[in-house]
Specification:
The protein contains seven helices and nine strands; from the N terminus they run αβββαβααβββαβαβα. The N and C termini lie far apart (about 35 Å). It has a single domain, classed as Leucyl/phenylalanyl-tRNA-protein transferase, C-terminal domain (Aminopeptidase), CATH 3.40.630.70. The strands form two sheets. The protein has a seven-stranded mixed beta sheet with strand order 4-5-6-7-8-3-9, sandwiched between helices. A two-stranded antiparallel ribbon has the order 1-2. A hairpin with a 2-residue loop joins strand 6 (about 110-120) and strand 7 (about 125-130). Helix content is about 35%, strand content about 25%. The model has no long low-confidence stretch (mean pLDDT about 95). It is an alpha+beta fold. Helix 3 runs antiparallel to helix 4 (about 85-95).
Length: about 200
């Protein structure tokens, strides 16, 4: 496949108008998506259940930011059906090296047991995927992502499609029209993911 379709320039341009890529699970061919409605997590509305709060307070795991970006992506793709192709891993890892894509890692000793990754553009963060190999570690990664975004001044956390899991954490669906307004406001902010 011609990697220019996933060049940094094209990725930034696509995300800034509400598009994101996914690879066909069989052929690896890249298609662009623009869901309507769109799922977002309001940064002030992340839902922490009583059990998750206890889990967070136990502080059993080490949290890091963009220490193992490619490893998080590979872990997210490690399932029977995945839209995360090798070309996507390569493209987003390049964006990470440029400071435009980030991950949150959850470690148990030296073992990566949970994480989330995505792309940042201005004050918008586009969460792509998350994984866990221990109970609640993907929720833990998402919690620390939300906290990082709030403290860094972000205004939008986009998570593509609604799932029961995301809804339980406070995700909301909004129309594409409303999403575009929020997106344009957010991407034009002078905000950075502070590590």
């Amino acid at each position: 496949m011609n990697n220019s379709v996933l060049s940094p320039h094209i990725l930034v341009k696509a995300y800034s108008v509400g598009l994101f890529p996914m690879a066909d699970m069989i052929t690896g061919e890249i298609s662009w998506y623009k869901p309507d409605p769109r799922a977002i997590i309001p940064l002030g509305g992340f839902h922490i259940s009583r059990s998750l709060k206890k889990f967070i307070n136990k502080n059993h795991y080490r949290i890091s930011y963009s220490e193992a970006f490619t490893k998080v992506m590979r872990s997210c793709s490690n399932r029977s059906d995945t839209w995360i192709s090798d070309n996507l891993v390569e493209a987003y890892s390049r964006m990470n090296r440029m400071g435009a894509a980030h991950s949150v890692e959850v470690w148990e000793g030296e073992e990566l047991v949970g994480g989330v990754y995505g792309l940042s553009l201005g004050g918008a963060f586009f969460a792509e995927s998350m994984f866990h190999t221990r109970d609640n570690t993907s929720k833990l990664a998402l919690y620390y992502l939300v906290e990082k975004l709030k403290h860094s001044g972000f205004t939008l956390l986009e998570c593509q499609y609604m799932t029961d899991h995301l809804e339980s954490l406070g995700a909301k669906e909004i129309s594409d029209e409303i999403y575009q307004e929020k997106l344009q406001y957010s991407v034009n902010q002078d905000v950075f993911f502070k590590i």
